[in-house]
Amino acid sequence: MTTTLAADAAAAEGVRLQLLKAGDDAETLFLMPGVEGDLAELLPAVQAMTGPQQVYAMMPVLPDAIGLPAAATQVVTAIRGLQPVGPYRVGGYSFGALLALEVAQQLRAAGQDVGSLFLIEGVYDERFWPRRMWVRALLRRTGWQLARIVRMRPLAALAEVRLRGVRLIRRLVRRNAKTADSVRDVASAETHSARYAYQSMAAYRPRTYPGTLTLIATSQDRHFGCDVARLWAGLAERVVVQRVDGDHLEVVREPVAAAAVAAAIDHGLAMARPGWPGVRPRPGFERPMILTTMRWFAAARLAHALIEAGFEVSACRPRGHVLELVDGLIADCRLNRLWRRRSLVAAIRQAQPDIILPDDERALALLRRLHESVKLTDPELAALVGRSLGDPAQWTSVTSRSGLAATAKSLGVTAPETAVVDDRRQLADWPLPYALKTDGSWGGRGVAFVREPADAATAWRSVAYPPSLPRALKRLVVNFEAAPFSAWARRARPVVNAQGFVEGREGIVTAACFEGEATAVVCLEVVAATEARGPAAVVRVIDHPQMASAARVLVERFGLTGFCGFDFMITESGEAYLLEVNARVTPTCHLLVEGAAPAGRTLALFPASTPDSEFVDVPRRVPALVQRGQTLVARKQRRSARLARRLRIAR
User: Is 633 exposed, middle or buried (0-12, 13-18, 19+ CB in 10 A)?
Assistant: First the structure.
């Protein structure tokens, strides 16, 4: 009965209204359809939504005499008849996106709160596009037409050239016209609603929106000659871009694309709720820069999650990194492999971050070297780096495996016996089995296990000496890493530690920190790894108070800010032994930002696991990342890659 009365009231205001999804009337979403004004075209996307929101589709009855702002006023009146006060949640598809934008502008102008605004493939008239973008789009569309024409028969090709030539001239004339006209193909529109939509779009120039705008855009352009997301750059205080695979004309109708649109809207509404568990920006942690020297996928996954959550994210990365596929970076800077420190300083000057998030051990070491070099000459830069890496007085304890074990035990954290070993003969005193681990090693490198007395000599040789000349030269020439060659030239030996072996299953704690406080933690157990001693491929979220408490205590001791990870070994009795602290970004950090880690959930990490795997954690809101991840998985299946992995394991 209430819905019927609402529909009658809306109709009296000149607005057609339809309830597409029943739900929480305290969280109502108002959606507007495309040029045809068909409310039912939104139904596939709405039916795919899983959130608690109630959803109405609405469209004004569009007389020729009024423009888009007047039509939006009718919609605002109808919306406020259903929901007198905000926060309001509005969205629209194609022409409906422009209508939704104007509705949000008018609601804000009336002093109302617009909590969420979703524009699905919203495109405004090309007369108002930036000139350079318009020219490029014109050339691109012309190229598409020429490619099609050359495949036609001669007479048909001549007719098409004439038609396209006339339209091209009209576009060129229309671009500089001071008033709207009907050059758009209005006559071909089949409905009154479509004719009105084309006419009103020709006269509507979007104003800058003083809030956050979520643009849901297709990842491929088949109609406009430009990336829709670029059209909206600078037209809102903040633009969040969500990509979906699909075509502009079918994105809310085709089931797969419609489901992706629904997921993007569900996630956007969930993040706006007061109880959202994900990490949010706060003063001092609003403008993170991700620093990476490796081409690891996790950096891009975290960057996208942070951008969704409202952070102003920048990156300093090597060329070809998957971060290039992430929309919304405020600065995307190159890390020069030959002049890393210099390029990093330039990136910091450009992006002005309030914290730097190292993505790998090399990035961590680079930041520490930068801090050492500028602590006397540039105190401001040194303070930024120091704050990003925690208390400088504690860096040695984090880097040294034996120092970490001693610090952990002093804080009441359980850790295996660990001590520096200077000579192989000292190993005779260690009870079997045990592990040899070098300081500063990562990814399974610099680790060897000794299970029998005969294994000690081989294990010692594999970790206790500088890299060989061929390997050092390879790292220098191919990877642009000078450290291995320098270690070979200086005959510098790594610091080797013996560590008591703990039988059990691997555990991980991922933490978000701020000035020595762990603001969010998630405990995981490793179900499967990518390879022996390799990173996790499948994890399960667990409730483990001992691991969580240990992580919080260590975060406080080391004064950490940003993201970090802790590696544990969990025995059959459930006791957890601390093995390592990674004072940097780890592959599961995005879970803390997305708030997607309920206990008991099993996650197959992408791209360590393929999208076909059960429980796979695919970044479906970023199709470009999914495609790149699938490519990386395919490369790993090549024979040469499998051989390289076997050789690395054998070493």
Answer: middle
B/e letters for 537-559, b = 16+ CB within 10 Å, e = fewer, are: bbbebbebebbbbbbbbbbebbb
Residue 131, classified by CB atoms within 10 Å of its CB into exposed (0-12), middle (13-18) or buried (19+), is exposed
> Cβ(616)–Cβ(629) under 8 Å?
no
Alpha helices in 478-532 (DSSP H): 483-490
CA dihedral angle for residue 372, residue 374, residue 376, residue 381, rounded to 10 degrees: -120
Q: Give Rg (Cα) of the chain.
A: 29
452: its two tokens:
């029998």
Residue 623, CA distances (Å) to 121, 126, 225, 257 in order = 15, 26, 19, 11
Angle (nearest 5°) at CA 359 between 353 and 364: 85
**Domain spanning 2-125+203-271: CATH 3.40.50.1820:** yes
CB under 8 Å to 228, separation ≥6 — which residues? 121, 122, 123, 215, 217, 218, 221
Distance separating alpha carbons of residues 256 and 267, to the nearest angstrom = 17
pLDDT digits (tens, 9 = 90+) for 79-103: 999 999 989 999 999 999 999 999 9
> To which H or E segment does residue 230 belong?
helix 228-231
DSSP 8-class letter at 467: P
Assigned architecture for domain 288-389: 3-Layer(aba) Sandwich (3.40)
Q: Give the pLDDT band (50/70/90) at residue 179.
A: low
User: What phi, psi does 510 have (nearest 5°)?
Assistant: -110, 130
Q: What H or E segment, with its residue span, contains residue 90? A: strand 88-93
CATH number of 417-501: 3.30.1490
Beta strands 236-244 and 288-291, pairing class: unpaired
Is it true that the peptide bond before 87 is cis, omega within 30 degrees of 0?
Answer: yes
Tokens 């795919």 appear where? 48
- CA dist., res. 36 & res. 196, Å (int): 9
CA distance 301 to 632: 14
Q: Which residue is it, tokens 């629904």? A: 262
How far apart (Å, rounded) are the C-alpha atoms in residues 466 and 486?
Answer: 9
Query: Which one is the CATH code of 506-651: 3.40.50.720, 3.30.470.20, 3.10.290.10, 3.60.21.10?
Result: 3.30.470.20
Q: What is the pLDDT of residue 44?
A: 95
Task: Locate 247 and state its tokens.
Answer: 């075509």
- What is the pTM (predicted TM-score) of this model? 0.85
Count, in order, helices (H) and strands (E) of the chain: 22, 22
Question: pLDDT tens digit string along 31-66?
Answer: 999 988 899 999 999 999 999 999 999 998 866 557
